[in-house]
Fold this protein.
Amino acid sequence: MSELSATVMNLPRRDAQDKLRGRTKYTNDRIRPDMLHAVLLRSTVPAGRIRKLDVSAALRCPGVRAVATGADAPGLYGIGIADHPLLAIDTIRYHGEPIAVVAAETEKQARAALAAIMLEVEPLAPVLTMADALQPGARLVHEGWRGYEVITEGGARAGNIAWEAKSSRGDVDAAFARPDIRIIESSFTVGRQSHVPFEPRVAIGSWEDGRAHIQTSTQVPWTVRNVTGRVMQLPPGRVRVTVPPVGGGFGLKFDASIEPITAVLARMTGRTVVLENTRQEEMATCLCRENAEIRIRSAVTAEGYIAGREAVVLMDCGAYGGEQVFLTTMTAHTLGGNYRVGATRLVSRAVYTNTPPNGAFRACNGVYNTFALERHTDEICDALGFDPMEFRKKNVLGDGDLGATGQVFEADVLGPMLDRMETLRASTGTSEAEADGRLYGIATTVGTWFVFVGPSAATVNLNADGSATLVTSGVEIGSGTMVQSLPQIVAGQLGLAPDQVIVREADTDAAGLDVGVGGGRTTVSIGAASVAACAEVREKLLRTAGEMLQTRPEDLVLRDGRVEIAGRPGSGISIPAVVAHAQATTGPVTGSGAFTARNTPAMSGCAMGHFIDALDIPVFVVHEAEVAVDPDTGHVEVLAYRVVQDVGRALNPRAVMGQIQGGVVQGLGYALHEEVTITADGRIAQDDFETYRLPLAQDVVPVAADLYEGAPSMGPLGTKGAGEVPILAVGAAIGCAVARAIGKPVRQLPLTPPRVLRLLHEREPPPEFPHIAHGWASNTLG
Amino acid sequence: MTVTFQLNGEDCRFDGDPMTPLVDILRQERFLTGTKAVCREGFCGACTVHVDDEAVPSCLKPVGLVQGCAVTTIEGLSFGSQALHPLQANFEAVDAVQCGMCFPGMVMSLSAFVRDNPHASRPEIKAAMAGNICRCTGYERIVDAVADCLDQARKAGQLVGGIHV
């Protein structure tokens, strides 16, 4: 297919030179001397009532131009439920929560003025853990939860349960009552993961002709626009968001947080205002991957058939619902993925606590549910004497199998991918010899993820110089979509070279709605909208050229910058000549395109409280890790790592390989040493680079990867998102490999040396969840 | 107090607190924003500059300590349309860059390293990167590019980075 051959290539990044020379201007490089600097007054208690908040003295401090409080932006925002104020109103729900903000001529003046704000808080006993929050009679983190605006209907809610999603298919009670099954139960617990993008959350706000303009480091310009409108009680159309290159996101910037504050201050002062989190603020209020607690039970026959499965997943959303409300949906597709199961029921609950709110992080929810599911699978194999690889081959989802919500999966994908892993291993060899006397383990695990499709829009303007301008709300966060896959797609559609495709950076005034850059969706969704826009452009171009060449449009093709007569290379006329003719006769050549989810059906009644009932584009991975564990220190060394990834179609294989290496390494950090803990006063204890241990060059190995192409996808040219999923099964592969190395069950991540030593010496207590009832139904709101 | 030093080959004068971190002067007063202030504690390496040809984190360098020194930032490594440093060219060639924020510091650290260690092995390259964190790439391509760069220089019989200020 020529369209495909014109699109697939290892296109280099057009932004690499400037990034390497330090010339790229990220948002926080755009601070100018005439801007006001904003600094936040943040809570120093995890829970309390604001008894007094008087900013009048701060307003009189040198250089201060404005002070804002919750009263200046009273609207609430959220995903699913509007529960989140921009600045605390009456109630403090987490340590670090913004209460007031000062804008002054210099950052130093703004900081000095913070001390002049009179704040009296009556502390309340904080609810710090999900166990505390689910105690009968627990203090409510949100006393007024019943009164919140529900933005998306359908989830069950009560008290400290911000949202509950359930899936139920088949007769699970009957499956567990079968005489020929054994029941295996496992419990897992995982901590938070901090994204640590090198550019922190930062925004520059101005007030222009009665509208807000926010330049910001975000993955979701339309969310920032809409949230700013909500909290300022303005029509969202009075907010414009533009996005410079983003210095890393990983999901942290998939929600609005501090950006609207700059608009509030800009309106108050008429000045441009910058607000940038310090590194300490960034880490102390990081919208982390949530900590979670998982109990999973399976009924398995002696032949290895999984007759029934049920699970309870508790997700700590922190002080506000945020992304976790949505992510409760994902349990059905992640914990409910991977394997063919007779009957299943899963409940996933987002639980309020007085801790910093959590958010989205690359393969959200999937990372720990895959860890839990894969370790549970190994525990099944241990208990029933199955070979773990054979058990997986026998039970992975295949063509026609049902997911947890009754979705019918198409095609055998995971099975052939497991075979490909064996081929890959045969080609690389294994590294057992490098264990050198340490405890050696190897594990192969599988994972199920998806492409978060949803609405995208694109406009393509074809210019008289033969270039095309692509206008979308896409953002370049580092993954390369805006500089590699999208120009490749447009060029392939229009017979241009990729460097002739100009990609406009996101501007909500210029481009249509977009859900944002996340969920592996940009190449698929913006790519599909771009293909649709190109179709309109091509139709206009061929019609005009047909008139000029006296040839039927259907006999013409676009190739190498020309409109050619099919089968006659070099014939016809150059695209610039056609565009110039069109401009003079029918007008400029433009096209617009739109795309959204097709909403693949679930089985009626199987999904409750879900934002997505079924996956439009499932994505699968097979990950294999080899580890050596030092029995004296508990240190885990990763000896080798292999990936087979379902990419649909790799448009830029080299860039995909780069995403796999980077994603796996983030997963290694999560699995082994990135640890977030909450102090007794509700703080994130690891709020700097000394205490939060990121992967370094010496921690990593080159990942051997095989790209599995050809699985069904509605994405343009058969693509699936490739950047999100590489982190999915790393916790699983490492957890399973370490468990096999040490011969003890691994039920918690990260596997820091002290934890591994405790496991080795049987001093690590297994997770106990007294707040998860024994009967599955007792863990639901009915 | 007044501090004078050379900045990218030109005289630079700073009047103020000599304890001011060099990175703040570079970014806030000279608008040399290629030097990134990420952790401000010396762990990440994104603010690395050369002071008298040695790679140092500019967040930990009070400006008073660069009195009389020659400071080179990423912007000074190759001006205008001058060719990229061989390391930069190799990073570009292997598609190593993602978000890009660590790279100016990575280039400044490693350009000093390859100049001084023309025969470095892969483990030595990784050890030299211990003070430069990258959150996107998983490092291996960066290591590949440094190794390629050293190979090319050895084959050409040159020291890497002979061109830099």
In short: Chain B touches chain A through 52 residues (CB under 8 Å). The mean pLDDT of chain B is 95.
